[in-house]
Write a structure and sequence with these properties.
This protein is an alpha+beta fold. β3 and β4 form a beta hairpin. The radius of gyration is 34 Å and the shape is globular.
Length: 824
């Protein structure tokens, strides 16, 4: 340890003697390590940071798959009750689901996030309320028949209630109902979902009351139907029971439920995962993991380039100090001691760069998080520097210092002793191997930079293609607001009347051209499918039912969104509650299920052969439904007047700028009824921006890191060429003295630099062709081998590399021969 400290003190003295070299080396490492730390801190917050659960290794998560599917999904409440009976596997089981409530205070309202949970929720997770108590277990059997109570989260207690110590026992108004607060949640805990901060926890039994499902729903509500899967389930294993044993036991239960309830459970499996292996839900985790891997790979390549520059700097430093090393070896110094001292200097530079990188990472993370996704629910991740991020930075710094300092240390500690002492040793660029380690490092930098630039270029071109896609509906001069009248206690008839009157109120506003109602907005997060039966249509082999995307819209929908009716008619006032059910189908649905014939007057049934009959009255042009990049898919529209929707979107077409419309609608809604919440308020452009958020962020991040890589690679090339020129000053002077002109000198130097670039470009192109193939699924309108992207990126990198070679070449060409001939 004393020797190690001595080596570090010696390295620090050497760095103080050359502050310019030390500053450049630390800055280069700060860029590489800072980028890696920033991305790792995001990945850590999203995928790795643990929840504050007691003995988390005993917790498991249980999912019920869709029919004949391997994808884990939510479970029904009756399923949860069956899971709870597995006393030989689980000490206790909890279930929960997310919801939104409107919190009203003194005439103002705000939409808040809640979790409806069982009484076992806090005990299973090993959490205790900071104040008050948890929920009464006796309430679980009283669905819709208890007085609503709530536990407020610690953050909401501080933010909205000022940390009132007497909050327990007070009432709050949620969805217009008086709810008694019985506790305050644990400090630092924001709910079961990472990235979402819950404001209140309410008992599962209070759900129908707070959500105003009505008396008719309590006897046949969502909690009693096995076919309604909307609950997440966690359980704590009995000591000694393994996850594998729990899986085996739940396989047996799944078989029994399939036999007892074939209509709802046949073909479904029950999946058990260790809680530590699930971050969000399995299907989301599977999508996030490769994205996180891609980001870490990208910044890892940036670090490789930064470290190559550090290695080149250390090689140059070692080459310049060969005479000192030779003298030390000649008087008896041990080579191992020299290697250790050189390595100490390399590691010290990396650690200093890591420290500066932490500051840079903090800035990068804040910059990235400034681009918040346009979501109605605020996303809250903790990107703080915990022990995992700090450990990652320290380990990364030490590893890079060791790995990329080893070769310069070995090379610098082994000079050609006698020629060096006689000042006859060949320098870089003079004799020996012309393609040495420094040149190999530059070639690798160019190759990696090309790979990153190609990846960024593909994403940028893909994003441009997405933005040019025609969604099939008008996106300009439109605003969207979403509300739900059931949370304010409106009955179905009251809700229908409110929507009619409020739509007319909005139509009367200045600048409003038309207003439409819909249960969802196209190309949004809400996806709705219905089972349909079409007489004469044969299902593909292995498919048990036909599920088709659909929407519920008002008569003015097609006009407002400029979706043409190609045949037949749209909806009108005839399509009311008492009229026969009608539908408008998309042209793809008409063509796929009825062929080329006329479908007007044809019909299909909802919910299978015995479901209600729906007559087709019109065919509408195809629109994008789920994503902008999808192929046309079957779709049908139902009349809003015939299919009541408690939650509805108002789509408002304006004559001018729609950005002020959301706030105008908010004011109008408060004037009518302040208890009715506004779930979303945005322009149509903002709505589509959410769909483009991921590709935009991907393109921006990849482009930023690729440009950083190109700058670092160019600096590395510049450094190699400049150093080679400086070591060949006498040679250049002789050439000029013998008659070489400036152009010949420039061409000589640039040719050597561009030779390295050509090798790097060739290697990078071959690497990019292979490495970009997995990106195909993330690209729109172009292939992973897009020749234009490869060509433009190659030309750009070659141009920048040419400048990096040309600048030192011009300086070399201007050398005074008399000065050069005296150069030592």
């Amino acid at each position: 340890m004393d020797l190690l400290l001595q080596d570090f003190r010696y390295a620090l003295r050497r760095l103080r003697q050359t502050p310019g070299f030390a500053s450049i080396a630390v800055a280069i490492m700060a860029l590489g390590i800072g980028a890696n730390t920033a991305i790792f801190s995001i990945v850590n917050a999203v995928l790795f940071r643990p929840q504050p659960f007691e003995n988390p290794e005993e917790l498991v998560e249980i999912y019920t798959t869709g029919r004949n599917s391997e994808i884990g999904a939510t479970s029904s409440y009756p399923d949860y009750l069956d899971f709870r009976e597995q006393k030989d596997l689980f000490a206790d089981v909890l279930t929960y689901r997310l919801g939104m409530v409107n919190h009203t205070t003194e005439g103002a309202s705000k939409l808040l996030l809640v979790e409806y949970v069982t009484a076992s929720y806090f005990s299973v997770l090993g959490l205790r309320p900071l104040l008050g108590r948890a929920f009464d277990p006796a309430s679980e059997g009283q669905i819709g028949a208890i007085e609503p109570v709530a536990i407020v989260s610690h953050a909401t207690w501080q933010r909205r209630f000022g940390g009132d110590p007497s909050i327990v026992g007070k009432t709050v108004r949620l969805n217009g109902r008086a709810v008694t607060v019985v506790g305050v949640g644990p400090e630092g805990y924001g709910g079961s979902w990472v990235g979402l901060n819950v404001d209140f926890w309410l008992p599962v039994a209070a759900g129908p009351l707070v959500e105003s499902l009505g008396e008719g729903m309590i006897s046949d509500n969502l909690y009693e139907r096995r076919g309604v899967h909307m609950f997440f389930v966690k359980a704590r294993l009995i000591p000694g029971v393994t996850v594998e044993a729990a899986r085996a036991g739940m396989d047996v239960l799944a078989g029994r439920l399939a036999r007892e309830y074939p209509e709802t459970n046949e073909g479904r499996k029950i999946q058990v995962f260790a809680s530590k292996d699930v971050r969000f839900v399995p299907i989301v985790d599977r999508a996030l993991t490769p994205v996180a891997g891609l980001l870490m790979a990208v910044v890892g390549l940036v670090l490789v380039i930064a470290c190559s520059n550090l290695a080149n700097l250390l090689l140059a430093r070692a080459s310049a100090g060969q005479k000192e090393v030779a003298i030390r070896l000649a008087i008896g110094a041990n080579r191992g001691q020299l290697v250790r001292q050189f390595m100490a200097e390399s590691v010290l530079l990396a650690l200093l760069g890591g420290g500066a990188g932490l500051l840079l990472a903090y800035w990068i993370v804040n910059l990235i998080m400034a681009f918040e996704p346009p979501l109605p629910i605020p996303v809250a991740f903790d990107f703080g520097l915990d022990e995992r991020v700090l450990g990652f930075t320290v380990i990364l710094s030490v590893l890079t210092g060791v790995l990329f300092g080893l070769a310069p240390s070995l090379k610098g500690s082994r000079p050609n002793l006698i020629p060096t002492l006689k000042d006859d040793a060949p320098t870089m660029g003079q004799g020996g191997r012309r393609f040495g380690l420094r040149n190999l490092l530059v070639v690798s930098q160019v190759a990696v930079s090309l790979l990153l630039l190609v990846g960024a270029g593909l994403f940028v071109r893909s994003l441009a293609n997405v933005q040019r896609i025609d969604p099939g509906f008008e996106t300009k001069n439109a605003a969207i607001v979403a509300t739900a009248v059931d949370v304010a206690g409106y009955s179905e008839q009251e809700g229908r009347e409110f929507y009619r009157q409020f739509a007319r109120r909005l139509e009367a506003l200045p600048g409003v051209l038309s207003v439409a109602l819909a249960d969802k907005v196209p190309v949004g997060a809400g996806i709705s499918t219905r089972d349909v039966y079409i007489e004469g249509y044969e299902l593909p082999p292995g498919q048990d039912d036909l599920e088709v995307d659909n929407g519920v819209v008002s008569p003015s929908y097609f006009e407002t969104l400029d979706v043409p009716i190609l045949r037949g008619r749209g909806f009108d006032e005839r399509d009311g509650e008492a009229a026969p059910r009608v539908a408008v189908v998309s042209e793809t649905m008409a063509r796929r299920y009825w062929g080329s014939g006329d479908v007007i007057g044809r019909s299909f049934r909802l919910r299978g052969l015995d479901g209600p009959r729906v007559e087709i009255v019109g065919v509408a042009r195809d629109t994008k439904v789920r994503t902008l990049g999808e192929d046309p898919r079957p779709y049908f529209y139902l009349a809003f007047g015939q299919t009541y929707q408690a939650l509805a979107y108002f789509i408002i077409r304006t004559a001018g700028d729609p950005t002020r419309m959301p706030e105008t609608v908010r004011q109008e809604l408060v004037a009518v009824d302040p208890d009715i919440p506004l779930f979303e308020a945005k322009t149509m452009s903002d709505h589509l921006g959410l769909m483009l958020f991921a590709p935009r962020m991907g393109a921006a991040l990849l482009s930023a890191f690729a440009l950083l890589a190109m700058v670092l690679a160019s600096l590395g090339l510049y450094g190699v060429v400049a150093y080679a020129v400086s070591r060949r000053t006498r040679e250049v002077g002789i050439r000029v003295a013998l008659g070489a002109n400036q152009g010949q000198v420039v061409r000589m130097v640039v040719r050597e630099g561009m030779t390295l670039v050509a090798v790097g470009l060739g290697s990078g192109l071959a690497l990019a062709v292979v490495a970009t193939r997995p990106m195909s699924n993330w690209l729109y309108g172009i292939g992973a081998g897009d020749p234009m992207t490869f060509g433009v990126v190659g030309a750009l990198l070659a141009s920048v590399a040419f400048l990096a070679s040309y600048v030192p070449a011009r300086r070399a060409a201007k050398v005074d021969p008399m000065v050069a001939l005296r150069y030592e």
